[in-house]
């Protein structure tokens, strides 16, 4: 058995060298997708164009607008009146309007609420909430600085001290890139086995393999082991790119990351083998791999959309998406460290799914041509 299994593994590596499409799937595709999505997907709101309308300019309004200009989140643009600013907002030239009315300074001196209005573009609800929060933060900072400069106490109901754990810089890339690795490796792992095995059915080499004394278990192991090592190489490349290119911190241990990645890759390869068993055509196998693995991983894994905000039936469906558990593991290892309750619970779910997919593949595989 060892000789036959060794011969099958050697045959797979020779086939990979002769047809390097598997190398492209394992190494070129992860780097390309990580580069594309890593730079293209961002939840940060920076340098947002904002219209500023000042009805009666004075030192207070000038100081407030200067504080707005110093913020990295805004690019203020001056408008003479609010009508023109609203027209710019409708045309998407600006994303919000800050309207300082004529009695701004007078009310401020009286200790009354300074009359200004904030109008934001609510087409993108997430960006609108971020923009509104950033403007309120600039207003509070300006009030505190003004109180210190004038020597007057800054009266607020309570002072709060914010401490942000795990991602103090609030970089969305630190949160998105680990989840993106899980989504990419879901697709890569499924394609490595689904496309390659389907190609063997189309070319007739699988029929020749069926005529040999090898067992179905040896055939599956001979397919699984070479692409497992290639998938781990692609995973290592993705992690190196995340650390070097996107500057994502790795707080946890490499060993925990490697063990979880190996477990998840077994699940992805098992899905690919099952797809290739059911569909012996490259086109069909590729379509099934995208629909069954990539799209659920992208939409239902918590990579971008919070699972807790989804309807209850959809939350239930997410439990059968393997990427959900791997996204949680990667975000924990990268940002929080080796939190074993989180890692062990999600790893156990991946282990169960690996057994299910590989078991279904072995049960559906037979040494016959029908």
Description:
It is a single chain. The protein is of the alpha/beta class and 370 residues long. The protein has two domains: 2-42 and 171-364, no CATH class; 48-150, abc type-2 transporter like domain (abc type-2 transporter like fold). It contains 14 helices and four strands. It has helices spanning 2-18, 21-40, 59-70, 82-90, 104-109, 125-150, 172-203, 205-210, 216-244, 254-278, 282-300, 312-317, 322-336, 340-364, and strands spanning 48-54, 74-79, 96-100, 116-120. The chain has a four-stranded mixed β-sheet with strand order 2-1-3-4, sandwiched between helices. Strand 1 (48-54), helix 3 and strand 2 form a beta-alpha-beta unit. The longest helix has 32 residues, at 172-203. The chain is elongated, with a radius of gyration of 28 Å. The model has no long low-confidence stretch (mean pLDDT 85).
Return the string of H and E elements: HHEHEHEHEHHHHHHHHH
Helix content: 55-70%
* Rg, alpha carbons: 28 Å
Number of helices: 14
Shape: elongated
Tally of extended strands? 4
